[in-house]
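User: Before I run my own analysis I want an independent prediction to cross-check against. Here's the chain; please return only the structure tokens and, at the end, one sentence I can use as a sanity check.
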Amino acid sequence: MPDRVLVITGTSSGIGLATAVAAARSGFTTVATMRDPARADRLLGAAADAGVEVDVRQLDVTDPTSVAACIDGVVADHGRIDAVVNNAGAGHLGTIENETVDDVRRVMEVNFFGVVAVTRAAMPHLRTSGGRLVTVSSVGGAIGQPFNEAYCAAKFAVEGFMESLVPVAATVGVTVVVVEPGAVASDFVANVDVDPAAVFAGAGPYEPALRAYIEEVMSHFGSAQSSDDAAGVIVTALTAPHPAPRIQTSQWAADFVGTKLADLDGTTTTAMTGAWLG
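Assistant: Structure tokens:
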């Protein structure tokens, strides 16, 4: 697919970086975007090691001007867009009593409205090419997790948005896929950007539950899926003739999400997540 042009957001590290390199190896002309291109060294090094090239461009998904400029620039320079991977996002840890509504809005801006903005800008070009829109969600888009209220709310919104878009986009020849990773050994957890001591100190009556939750989460990252493995699933979503609308990146993720899909009244799911809090 040497003439197929892919735009992927959030490629400075983790799944985004691995997907940009894997897609380029699969033959895509890969436009790898990030908020700060000064952080592109790791990506460019990984691409060089893989013997491929990527076109690095600036894109801040929360800035409409940046989104428009990037998408328009790609079309001007490459002539088309055949696929988009919405990958940019940011983690968040907290519970609503201890944070502000503005904190929640910021999480929604990056993880939900950023996806909406890029999708809206790209759809006319995907419609022209009969292209593919792949959005990296999370198992947190299916199961609400303790101390992830804002993050899971954003991912739930992404899932609802894309599930609703699937049949509509299909009428104009665009395939829409949501990819749900579970625990992935990447920089994402580090990028939540919290000081654990400060978080615990400010947790108030929630401190015991928060400590138990952090211990539970970190136990999963000892056997986490690699970014390269997750990227392989995303590339398959980009290239398979008829991909499913929702794909998990590992058996663990599939089993975890399956708990929710089989739990009509929510008691099994909340009992499971409640047990994480001690």
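Sanity check: Residues 5-275 form a domain with the Rossmann fold fold (CATH 3.40.50.720).
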